[in-house]
Structure prediction request, 170 residues.
Amino acid sequence: MVQSVELLLDEGGEAEIRRQWAVLAEAGLGNRHPGTARPHITVAVAREIWPRIDHALERLAFEPLPIRLGGLLVFGARRPILVRAVVVTADLLALHRRVSEVVSPCPGVPATMAPGAWTPHVTLARRVPPERLGDAVRTVAADTDFRSLIVGIRRWDGEARQERIVIGGR
Prediction:
């Protein structure tokens, strides 16, 4: 199973993503249980993240970071994933680079998470049936870009389905 390091949004950003999840769920698309997940931006993934890496993450310099969530993107074709792009800034890339450097010794870090290859986003709907992708896009396409604030970093253990706040957060 996968473990990850994720950036957490402020209350306003989290509420807006949850609203979009709910609209998609009402349309029969996306997450059926939006209350059980938490909006986030994944910055690192590995097969296993060791405890010493967790301790190094706790020591990262971190300040709340303003971001803008922008347009829609689609990842994949057979089982499309609908996401909202996070507009890239130098500060966001610097935070990603710092986290990547800490996590890089861990096993199973995918190349798509490396600096220069990473696509920052917040997932809106997974496994959208390809024939319903247009419906999913139309459901949230009229929503405008919005600002949020990254307020913390968490570690997610996908096997245990447990989160641990590393820095900040709520």
Q: What stands out?
A: Residues 67 and 148 are 5 Å apart (CA to CA). The chain has a mean pLDDT of 91. The beta strands are 3-9, 40-46, 65-75, 81-86, 121-125, 146-157, 162-168.
